[in-house]
Amino acid sequence: MNIITNPEKLRGFERHLVKVQNVSRRSILKSLGIAGSFVLAAPVLSRPAFAYETGAGQMPHGVVVDPRVFVAIAPDGTVTIVAHRSEMGTGVRTSLPLIVAEELEADWKRVKVQQAHGDEVKFGNQDTDGSRSTRHYLIPMRQIGASARTMLESAAAKRWGVPVTEVKAANHEVVHAASGRRLGFGELAADAAKEPTPAIASVKLKDPKDFRYLGKGEIGIVDLRDITVGAAQYGADVRLPGMKYAVIARPPVTGGKLVSFDGAAAMKVSGVEKVMEVKGWPWPSKFQPLGGVAVIARNTGAAIKGRDALKIVWDDGANAKYDSVAYRAELEEATRKPGLVVRKEGDVESALKSADKVIVGEYYAPHLAHVSMEPPVAVADVKDGKATIWAPVQSPGGTREDTAKTLGIPEDNVTVNVTLLGGGFGRKSKCDFALEAALLSKELGAPVKVQWTREDDVQHDFLHTVSAERIEAGLDKSGKVIAWRHRSAAPSIGSTFGAGAVHQLGLELAMGFVDMPFEIANVQCENPEAVAHTRIGWFRSVSNIPRAFAVQSMVGELAHATGRDQKDMLLELIGSPRILKLDSVKDYWNNGEPYDSYPIDTARLRRVVEIVAEKGEWGRKVPKGHGLGIAVHRSFVSYIATVVEVAVDEKGKLTVPRVDTAIDCGTYINPERIQSQIEGCAIMGLSLAKYGEISFKDGRVQQKNFDDFPVVRMDEAPLITHVHIVPPAADTPPCGAGEPGLPPFAPALMNAIFAATGKRIRALPIGKQLAI
Amino acid sequence: MIKLNINGKEQTWDGDPDLPLLWFLRDEAGLTGTKFGCGVALCGACTVMLDKEAVRACITSVSDAAGRQVTTIEGLHPTGDHAVQKAWRQVNVPQCGFCQAGQIMQAAALLAENPKPSHDQIREAMAGNICRCGCYQRIENAVHLASTGV
Q1: Minimal CA–CA distance to A488: which of A352, A702, A342, A359?
Q2: Does any CB of chain A come closer than 8 Å to the CB of residue B39?
Q3: Domain end call among B53, B73, B93
Q4: Residue A337 has pLDDT above 80, yes or no
Q5: What CATH number did the domain enclosing B44 receive?
């Protein structure tokens, strides 16, 4: 999610900008100086062997394709493969090494996975976000595995004095078929290391029909056993000798600051050792700490008890009046007036005037907190001008850069060790919690663990935006939609990085808004201004949540207004199979991918609708009080359609007996993990639809924990989620899988609720709106 | 001085008797398999067994645990092969995995009390344990598998 489309608007993103435009080029040169390693930028990736290109080379520090960086083979045959992306539940720590093992012809049972520390010069971009790990690394990881295999084959051929064309690696050994000789990988490792690293373009990749692991879904995640026995190490599980435990009281209002504090009572709590101020940064504070008062203790429990005893005076600052009720009215009012035009086709104004009927839908989606099960936590050990961090971060490279900057030391003096993440969902792309630990450790001269409580997490999150979406659809006499005007008002993620950001970024506009795929003659998208009053950040699937909710709910409304079936209406609006041309959209952001390889293809959009309708038995007879709803959305360059069956009882209590989702995510690695992502998205989707709301009063978040910010529990989870993965055509580029399952769920549910009850819910969450 | 028995091993604590057992386990005893998720018994990530009863370690004080057998995920089975643990692996339950120790302890306590729970009984008994990744369908299937062997 760090691709930049609009640099002049984004000075606040300096680290990404600089990395993209300057540092990455410099680092490529630097890496080329290392014997036997090579760094690929995007143009090199676009070779005839593959029918597509990705935006991987445009990411900060691009892509490193070097078997010497990613693969090590021990004399006993153990193959160690580096996972350079963070594991937060998607399975990436297994999937990427599995790709290498596939091409390497390694036996997965003899593979060990080693987590990379944060070093983007060495490993390439490590930002685990934007649903792009598989998308960007399928080819590079195949090339790495194939390069290492080629080196093993060359070494064996030399040993035997036969042409390399006569030998072949298979299942952890190299075989000379003519003579029946064979050598294990371990026996060849030392010689293979002496072989030159082959030129990437010359490396022959396996024929996919010979794949043993890829696309099969038969390999469990590497951490499975550790997780079930309590041995998996998350951020909070790191323990160092002499380590202190800290919790921090932060300003209750974004942009507020500490005036004074009295720590006397806290110091009397058994186990508390120190009370101290933590440096904060002025708002907008990017990923820097908010500041406040830290309580240092011999264990976390004592630190929390000590913090409860603090007396603190805060200056609430400029956002002290932030109030969600008033702000919603402001946003909605903004969408009733013209805003910045960000897409324009035809003449929407005249078309709406001449329309036989105009349907207006005003939709609202509130702030959301991530509430990953593991609240933010980090351990830092800063001494002698060097810093070592252990943290569950999605951005190890960014964490390293920001730690160096915050402490004023060179990046080379910072080591970021990546633990498992107990959930991320975008929250752990921001490393503020690691910076807090680094600052405290530096001052204390001892290792420190900073633990956020759940209340800290809910009250000081980088929240999902809040938005008002207004759609006007004009129909002609025959019921055909001839005009579509969509206005979206929401505080932007850009506001976290630069004061005065009132319009949404290109990447936010492109999430289901300006990329609206319907075949309508007159279309206009407008983005009125919205001023942020809290930290806005990336939340799993980002602005796709409110957009899919609005657009797909409107499809349901149009179906109802014209007396048509929801699915038929949806297919009619999508229209003919075609590649969308977004000529009127300035600098369209295509999830960072080249449009030629990843166009908006309405044939694929139609197909997932048709598949989910067929597999999900669309139109089936359901009991009284039940209803079916459908929605489709393209995000992270994947195409996903969902059918939800809902049951609403006479008191308005809803249950979800069945969910069907069809996903076309192109070429895939591990269908079993895609399935688990989609199952999870149905549950997270139901959580945000039923309960998800962070609200503000007097500048303060009104929720604290899972009691007032509930998430769905097992007794209310969908009973069955069927996942239908569309088999990819040959050479279909890999697309995203971690996030795209989420956006279509809420609108499919709302359409189902309408079918069941006749009640149209236009504001999230459902809350008490169905209560009778 | 409070005497505790954790996973069959005697331990002592001479600090604050009100310290939540969770923090004693994690920070003082180094048993980090038990997780912190909410601190107020809303999420179940810190579920351990006191004797045979599943409790939330975040609201159980060290003094409450005195004289009782505390079992954590590390002590559930000597080789990590409790029927619930095996079923979890067979069904590929976890995504991020952070809540799973608590889920497994809750499921093990459920099966100790009710070896053949119905699906509704599973859903009810497990409703106190939150999984933000949304592994519920698989958790339910794994508990069922552990209870029936199929």
Answers
A1: A342
A2: yes
A3: B73
A4: yes
A5: 3.10.20.30
